[in-house]
Amino acid sequence: MTLVQMQPRPASADPVHRTLVEVMDAAGLQVCDDMSVEVALSVMAAARTGRLVLCDQDGQCTGLVTRTELSAVRDSSAYTDRLRLRDILGEQGAFTSPVATMAEAERAMCRLRLGALPVVDEQGSGLGILAPSR
């Protein structure tokens, strides 16, 4: 067992200047972007989650999809059972670094109109998700 020491943050610390590694949620479910939309919706339902982090064959983060997005795709007239998650990513392939500040991430999320933003390391592996608290 490894002991971890936690240092309390001073009450005066400015939350805008905190880095994402301090505030991000765990990465959650990561799935391969060649998964079908229908299977992804089933995985989300079973895991009781509203989003999935997508990775390519090399484990590199390629984006994030939500249940709302996938449901809209499935209900559209263009839907086929051959449609893969990578086919619907579009602009959702955005992600950020764990050393970015909250202010930088918030600006990016507003500019791109994202509800959540994957946080990746230098190699492109998913570390977590920045999402508004509920």
Automatic annotation (TrEMBL):
Domain CBS: 31-70
The entry's keywords: CBS domain
The keyword Cytoplasm belongs to this UniProt entry's keyword annotation: no
A Pfam family hit: CBS
Recorded superkingdom: Bacteria
Family annotation (CDD domains): CBS_pair_SF
Protein name as catalogued: CBS domain protein
Organism listed in the record: Streptomyces platensis
Lineage: Bacteria, Bacillati, Actinomycetota, Actinomycetes, Kitasatosporales
